[in-house]
Specification:
Elements: H1 6-21, H2 27-38, H3 43-50, H4 56-64, H5 82-97, H6 103-110, H7 118-143, H8 149-154, H9 164-177, H10 182-199, H11 207-218, H12 222-241, H13 257-278
Length: about 280
C-alpha cells in the first residue's frame, strides 16, 4: 500500500534540495516554501498529533546566550526526546518564516559553514537541522501505533452552518488549535466554546428548545439521546466553571496544556456530530 504521507515528505525533500542549491540569492524565498509546506495538510496535523507543545521563546533566548565572540559559536540545545525535538525544530522554522529570528542570523550563529559565506552557512543549516527534522518526523510517523484520529478530524472543516459568525468561530478555533503554541490552543478553546454557545441558539431563539432540536436531530434512540443530553449539560457546566469563556476570580484554572487539548477534542466531537447530522 502506498504511504499517503510520502508525497508530502517527497515535496519537503525537494524543497530542501532547492534550498541547498540556491546559494545565497533566493534562499529565503525557498525556505518560505518549506515553512508553508509544513503548515499544509497532511503534515500540519501529523506534527500536531505526534509532538507536544514546547516553549520556543525561552529556549531560543537560552540558545542566544551561548553565543561567544567567535562566529558560529552559538549552541542550539535540542531536547533529547525526539518528539519534543521535532516540535522545537518546527517552531524554529516558523519563527524564521516570520522573520524573527532571520534565517541568516540562525545559520551564521548556530550552523556556521566555516568559509564565511552565507551559502555555506545555509547548506550547513539544512544538513544539521532541516534534514534531521524530516528524518525524525518520518521515524515518529512510522513508530506510531495508531492513526491520530482526533487530530486528523480537527484538520477537516465543519459542514456549513448557514450562520457566518458560527462558521467563522469554528474556523478560527480549528486554525488556532493546529498551532503548537499553548497560548494559541488556549485561545482556540475559548473560540470553540463561544461557537458551542452560539450553536445552542441556531435553531430557535429559546436556548433550551434549540438544544433539544439539535440533539433530537442526532438520534431519537432513548439511551444514546440521554448520553448526549448528559454530555451537553456537562460541557456547559465546564465552560461556566473553568477559565474558558469567563475569567472571574471564582473560576478554576485549567492548568496543564493537555487539559486544554482534552476539552477541545471533547467539545469538537459533539459539535461535529450535531452539525454532521443536522446537515443531512
Amino acid at each position: 500500500m502506498t504511504n499517503p504521507l510520502q508525497p508530502a515528505f517527497d515535496e519537503l525533500q525537494d524543497i530542501l534540495d532547492d534550498f541547498e542549491a540556491s546559494g545565497y540569492q533566493g534562499t529565503e524565498a525557498v525556505f518560505t516554501r518549506f515553512v508553508a509546506a509544513l503548515d499544509r495538510e497532511p503534515v500540519a496535523s501529523l506534527v500536531t498529533s505526534l509532538t507536544p507543545p514546547v516553549a520556543f521563546v525561552p529556549w531560543y533566548e537560552a540558545a542566544k546566550s551561548t553565543t561567544g565572540s567567535m562566529v558560529g559559536s552559538g549552541h542550539l540545545n535540542w531536547p533529547v526526546d525526539r518528539a519534543e525535538r521535532v516540535s522545537m525544530m518546527r517552531e524554529l522554522f516558523r519563527a524564521i518564516g516570520n522573520g524573527e529570528p532571520g534565517l541568516w542570523e540562525v545559520a551564521h550563529t548556530f550552523t556556521y559553514g566555516g568559509s564565511g559565506q552565507f551559502a555555506d552557512d545555509f547548506e550547513a543549516f539544512s544538513r544539521k537541522i532541516a534534514r534531521p527534522f524530516l528524518r525524525d518526523l518520518s521515524r515518529l510517523a512510522n513508530l506510531r501505533a495508531d492513526p491520530p484520529v482526533l487530530s486528523e478530524a480537527v484538520a477537516q472543516p465543519f459542514p456549513p452552518t448557514g450562520d457566518l459568525t458560527l462558521d467563522g468561530l469554528l474556523s478560527s478555533a480549528r486554525d488556532g488549535f493546529r498551532d503548537m503554541d499553548p497560548s494559541s490552543r488556549r485561545d482556540s478553546l475559548e473560540k470553540l466554546w463561544d461557537a458551542w454557545e452560539r450553536l445552542k441558539t441556531i435553531d430557535a431563539s429559546d436556548k433550551k428548545l434549540s438544544v433539544k432540536a439539535l440533539l433530537d436531530g442526532v438520534t431519537t434512540e432513548p439511551h444514546f439521546r440521554q448520553i448526549l443530553e448528559t454530555e451537553a449539560r456537562a460541557l456547559t457546566d465546564i465552560g461556566n466553571g473553568f477559565h474558558i469563556r469567563h475569567f472571574e476570580t471564582s473560576k478554576t484554572e485549567l492548568g496543564h496544556p493537555a487539559l486544554v487539548e482534552y476539552l477541545f477534542h471533547r467539545l469538537w466531537a459533539i459539535i461535529w456530530l450535531a452539525l454532521a447530522t443536522r446537515a443531512k
